[in-house]
Amino acid sequence: MEGLNTTMAPSSRNADGMGVAPSGLTSIKAAEQLATFGPNVLPAPAANSFALTFLKQFKSPLIYILLLAAAVSLLVSEASDAIFIGVVLLANGLIGAMQEHSAGRAAAALRALEEPLAAVIRDGRIDQMEARFLVPGDLVLLEAGGKVPADIMLVEVNDLLCDESLLTGESMPVRKAIDTPGSATTDHSGTTAYAGTLVTRGRARGLVVATGRSTGIGRIAAEIGKASVSQPPLMIRLARFSNIIAWTVGGVSLLLIVIGSIRGLAWNELFLMAVGLAVSAIPEGLPIAISVALAISMRRMAKKNVIVRRLPAVESLGSCTMIATDKTGTLTLNELTVTDIRLPDGTDLAIDAGMDLDACIIRGAGMNPDIARLRAAKLLKAALLPNEGSLTEEDGRWTGVGDTVDVALLEAAHKGGLKADELWDAYPLIGRIPYEPDLKYAASLHRSGQRAHIFVKGSAEVLIGMSEQMDAGQGQVPIDRDALLRQKEEMAGRGLRVLAFAEGTIDDGFDEPFGHHHLTDLVFLGITGMQDPVRPEVPQAIRDCHAAGVEVAMVTGDDPRTAAAIAAEAGLIFKNDQITTGTEVRAAEDAGTGQLDELTRRARIYARVAPSQKLSIVLSLARNGHFVAVTGDGVNDAPALKHAHVGVAMGKKAPMSLRKAPTSSSPTTILHPSSPASAKAAPPMAISARSF
């Protein structure tokens, strides 16, 4: 973390209102703060004992009626009926309790998989400690590839980007800065790193300003702790069925008593007859039949690595009529990937978005894959050399560290057959111009024989302006700026993130410091289109949903154009007038529930939606008569997951990792409720859990 080249924000203060101490807190002060604020952990849900889980199985109107029937049977000396009902209820409770207790232990084991560490300055020295011991006022170091351990006000920043998709659903990293003196803004999102987010680029130091439940992620956790406003469809139907039985049996019994009284029957005979009718009319075997059926389905899902925490969730999947799904990390891989290459002569090349980097190929229409790789080689070399990321393989697992764009470019170069070590040996680095937002490009200067070679990546508009020639495949030709800008606009219109590449040479004088003045007379090599690609199995899963009569809606924090492009690729069925934004949702909320319900009856893609609005959308869909399943992998999805009829929580994704093809022993899956009691295997990135 040494070498941060920015100055400390003059307005920065620690928890005591004093200037930031470069030595951080003392151990004594940290211990006092820990006693005051408590550990930096989210409140864990209370683990139910087996006995409590067992007792909860009796929380059902139908069970209440059966218990009443058993009590009445004892009163009238029908012990055999009471014993039979008791055995049925006991077996039903044991089956449900064992299944749910087992699922609860599995979910708890998943939560315990990760114990994050933090780099903290205490007593003047850098120390690695468990994030749970952080306190407000701690001076924390952040660097690329690490997870932010608490809400941190930044005081020193060096090119810091944070992936906040976990909290916001926005797939693009957010650039961070420090507070400027005298700033009147109340929005500190650009100067604060939030707990649970990922540092994708750069380094920083910052003061912990919130820990545990006081953080942004902690406030969402508090929302999750509220009682769910939705009931599983099975519980709703059982309650309705129980009411029908109760009123029917009561009415018929009363009718028999009236008729018997008219005919002069004794009151004790009438009472016994009414009780017998009531006991015989109640389906004692129904609860255990339901529990056995659900338990079998629960076990089958467990074999697919799907954890179902409550038995009724199994039936809820079959009743689902609407799936409200997150985009980033759910429909998509949440890994920025180069998918398209456009060469200056108009040649289009596509790069497989598969997860096995060694098996992916570059394709061109009517073009041999080897020729396609050769055509892309110059551009990919310019993507690899001015790159500050790293991509390594260990035990069959690819791991990328650095900015998501840099990692995506390294991945594309590997798919194109380029060997990073060989290129670095062939082109020793002389100098580098790091990427800066104001420059909109990054460049590097490399020795190549007696010459110096320049490689540049950055904004298409900027690089087109720097170039005088363009690579036409068979040689260099004068640049056609208008045609290149049209190519860039066409790719951006498809929801792709566009990046351009150029190269140049310096015959002499390259011993002087490398700077912007060297970036002239470049040769434009082409542009790439990057996106967060759709998971390979998603289109088929959506087709299965549509075939089963289940509608699918996308709810995301991303841009509407990007959301529409991903939705079309995923196979969602929608029209342009069914795309809405968070601004429209907010206006409908302000106008009342009726206006919001009218909006959700029409819309199928919700873009630029705030986390709090996801819950409003889900509740509105439920008011419109849908049984709603919500899928998501981020903390921002948690309130909607909690209050939906079915919540499918997905996750367990290693940060910034690129994996080879999964093996059969991979422990990770995704739940696809496309038809009753169905589950499909998914890529090695997610694990599902039911949440009520």
Number of helices: 22
Give a short account of the largest sheet: 10 strands, mixed
Cα(first) to Cα(last) distance is 43 Å
Q: How many distinct beta strands?
A: 28
CATH hierarchy: architecture of the domain at 337-531? 3-Layer(aba) Sandwich
* Strand coverage percent: 15-25%
User: Whole-number radius of gyration?
Assistant: 31 Å
CATH homology superfamily of the domain at 337-531: Calcium-transporting ATPase, cytoplasmic domain N
> Low-confidence runs (pLDDT<50, min 5 residues)?
1-19, 109-113, 653-692
Quote the CATH topology of the domain at 337-531.
Answer: Calcium-transporting ATPase, cytoplasmic domain N
Structural class: alpha+beta
Oligomeric state as shown: single chain
Envelope shape? elongated
Task: Please give the share of residues in helix.
Answer: 25-40%
CATH class of the domain at 337-531: Alpha Beta
Mean pLDDT comes to 76
